Structures are given as structure tokens and as C-alpha cells.
Amino acid sequence: MLRLLCPLLTLNTALSAQTTFSESFTGSSAQGWVFGANTGDNKPFLTAATGAGGYDGAGNAIGAAIDTTGNGWLRLNSNTSNQSTFALLDTEIFAANARIEIDMEYAFWNGSGADGITFFLIDGTKDSSTFTPGAYGGSMGYAQRTGEAGMPGGYLGFALDNFGNYSNGSEGRVGGITNDGTLYPNRISVRGPESSNYAYIASNSTPLPGQMDFPQPPLALIKPAPITELSKSSLTPIISSPSR
Questions:
Q1: Residue 44: cis peptide before it, omega within 30 degrees of 0
Q2: Which residues contact 34 (CB under 8 A, 6 or more apart)?
């Protein structure tokens, strides 16, 4: 398991006019965002917020702020196993003939290298009252896993697959580069909608250079302090929808 931080996410939708949603996650709140998990004591949290010590078993925030306001991050998970966490922008943003561009910065550290982070699109009829994440582990909070459902209303799941399981068809997932449990680390991989049983679509053909986690190498055992331009990574996916 890796700890994962996300300090910046900007989302542009291009229709007849451009709409931009931007959140730095550096402060003590993130308007419009809802955080959750498959277990109440592992929800994501803002490190500059009071209660940034995580959550107790009842899902109550505990502890003091870890970072000062303006220097915080969104911490998506702790260094424990079997987590499926999410940060949901609880706003409809997408329509027919649209294009989305997403800019995000992130940092991984600690743990074994499993598993990664997924950027997902869901059906606009879902909101924070009806949304739940998909399965943990190699399904990365999006796809299904043997004995556990995938993300209801999932449309596309783009994974930064640091460990390499999302790209294979093991653990009850549908399709992959292979179906024999072979790991394909350090790839960006895509799975399809709930209606396809989150079927595998594609991955980059060869692993990305270096590592997705920090540093390169070895995997850091502690949070880099401070997290600098050298210790974080960026991603800019572009999604076009000509007919849906």
C-alpha cells in the first residue's frame, strides 16, 4: 500500500463555452468535494484541516492539522491494506460533444508500491448520497473484484497503475493484457463502464520511464518534507466525447 497525496486538480470542460473547476486542496476545505472510503476510518482528508489525524472507527475526524493553510494536500489513503477511497466532485460537468482536460499533481510514498490512483467518470445521475467506490487492490476503487462489486454508474476508469494489477484480468476483473495474474507496473490503463463489467480497454504498450512513486528509486519510506517540484508528478489526460 502506498500513501497518496493530490495537491492540485483542474478540470476544463469544452462545450459552447469553457467551464473550469479548480481545487488546490492546500487549504482547510474543498467546496463541492466529498471524501469517502469502503471503511469509515480510512477516508481521505485535507492535511491543512483540523482533524487531519485521520478518522476513528465511527468515521469521526481526529487530530490536529498536519500542514499549514496554503501548504496542505489531499491525502487519499493511509499505509494499510484493502482500502478503496475516493474524492468525488459532486457536480454534473459532462455532456454530449464535450471534451475534458484534467491537470493534476500527485505524490506517492511509503509501503509496497500498491496500488495506484484512478481518475474516474461516473453517470451524472449518481451523487454523494448514492455513490460508492469499486473494489480495493488491483481493481483500484473502480472495477469489480471476486466477491465485491465495481463502482455503480462507472463510465471510464483511468488508472495510474503503479503496482501493475489493474492491467490484468485476475481477481475477477474482465479482460487485461493477460489473464494470468502477471503484473504490468508503471502504466496508465483504462477500463470501461459498469455496463461492460468494467472491461479492460487499453494500456500504454510499454511501461513509463522511471517510477510513478517517489523517489525514483527507491520507494520512500517517509513523506518527503517538504514535497517539492522534484518529488511530485503531474498528469494531463484529455477526454473527448463526440456522441455521448
A1: no
A2: 87, 88, 90, 128, 131
